[in-house]
Amino acid sequence: MNPELAVAGLAMWAVRLVCSCLFYSIFVPLLLPFELAYAFYSSYLQFLIKSCVERLEMVGNLDAIWMQDTPDNRAIINGVLVLRDQLRLEQLRELVQGKLVEATARGNRRVAAKFQQIVSKRYRRYVWREDEAYSVRNHVIEHEGRPPACQAELEEILSEYCSQGLNMQRPPWLIVLVPTAEGGSVLLFRGHHVIGDGVSLTTLMMTYLVDKPPAQITPVRFGSGRSKFWMFAKAVLEAPYLLGRDLLQADDRSPLHGPALSGRKRLAWIRDIPLAQVKRVRQATDSTVNDVLMACLASSFRRYFLRRGWAIPGSLKAYVPIDMRPRSGEFELDNQFSLIFMGLDLSNGDPLKTLRQTKRSMNRIKASSLPVANYLAMIYCMANLPAWICEALFEVLAKKSSLILSNVPGPAEQLSIGGSVIEAMSFWVPSRSNIGLGVSILSYNNQVSVGVITDTNIMEDPQQLAADFKACLNQLERAVKQGRNED
């Protein structure tokens, strides 16, 4: 190792250690009386809630974060399944009610209890209460317009639904059945983030709604045992420095970040990217599938900026969710993820250099304790600080990035619902604060889909960004085969 790099690394570690020591020795004792008072106040409110005649359940701390959405930026996860055959509405309602809503796990525990519950407020706390008037007919509906004859028409229909809110006087979820002109069906699922995150909702659907659950739905990402212990220890030690650094970062400055949001959504997706092609590039460049996908996305944004005649920033900051679920344990429909900043390299048009830079960035993230530190901070803040302080902190952090970026590995084999084969699936992530752009990447049955959802004031043509992704992957593969860089 270069001696100068070793000295620099040691100096940085010393700075982090000093910051942590100062924080834990000075600020923690100062905050302790306020934390104890707030803990007593929270316990008193919980006692009042449990004393209510109604059967109420507290909304989890990490779930309650997502009740801070606005009409211009709703915290709604949207997912789509493309089926080969046409399902009847009553058939779909029976499947959803019998296999999903009424699903139980060990000990007769209701897996999807939230699908029959309403989010309310009692004593300034969000709670779940049973919807006495629940009916699956209110939540599984059929599109009444003309069946779409092509993907562009389907995207228009889905964009219209995704621009609407959910009825929060009912359980916050909806499934829309859209028959297609070709004789197939499209299922649009819409669920508020307070129910659960994308990984838990995907797991729920792929475990209970499909005809035969896959062997593996989403690969586990978080470690266990000794490595997990040391990662937590490192996160506790470095958390004050890392979180302070994030809070002091400058806001991302790009044409995609900052304009006032309209609340109108426009979405697009491309679904026929061969996973085998991504793996060929991965193998030839000694990188990972995720490295290749992130590099292609960075190149896509560079193309988009060039096409619009905008100045190209060195990087584009994305807010990325990281799944924090343990390797073992019963399935829970909730939110268990951390959020980190990641810079997409837009500095040059060389696809191989972009991939190398992306790989270096991803390796730094993997070696960092930042995901764990942020996760612990989210838990701590929501449990020990008033809601208005948490909202302010999350707002400050959210405003620093231009987009939300989510990459979820899905089932590797082909699945079916009600005897109809699922030909493709995709999803669109929700945004928050003044972020009006989301990009989602999902693999299914050896295909990769890229979904883009944007506020109409941010981007007028998300279809172009999605299409550029495939073009950039082809360009990268050509560069690898030729053994030279392409400009």
From TrEMBL:
Pathway: Glycerolipid metabolism; triacylglycerol biosynthesis; Lipid metabolism. The chain crosses the membrane at residues 6-32. Keywords: Acyltransferase, Membrane, Transferase, Transmembrane, Transmembrane helix. InterPro entries: CAT-like_dom_sf, O-acyltransferase_WSD1-like, O-acyltransferase_WSD1_C, O-acyltransferase_WSD1_N. It comes from the Eukaryota. GO terms for molecular function: diacylglycerol O-acyltransferase activity; long-chain-alcohol O-fatty-acyltransferase activity. One of its GO terms (cellular component) is plasma membrane. Residues 335-476 form the O-acyltransferase WSD1 C-terminal domain. Residues 119-214 form the O-acyltransferase WSD1-like N-terminal domain. It catalyses: an acyl-CoA + a 1,2-diacyl-sn-glycerol = a triacyl-sn-glycerol + CoA; a long chain fatty alcohol + a fatty acyl-CoA = a long-chain alcohol wax ester + CoA. It holds the Pfam family WS_DGAT_C. GO terms for biological process: triglyceride biosynthetic process. In the N-terminal section; belongs to the long-chain O-acyltransferase family. PANTHER family: O-ACYLTRANSFERASE (WSD1-LIKE) FAMILY PROTEIN, WAX ESTER SYNTHASE_DIACYLGLYCEROL ACYLTRANSFERASE 4-RELATED. This is Diacylglycerol O-acyltransferase. It comes from Macrostomum lignano.
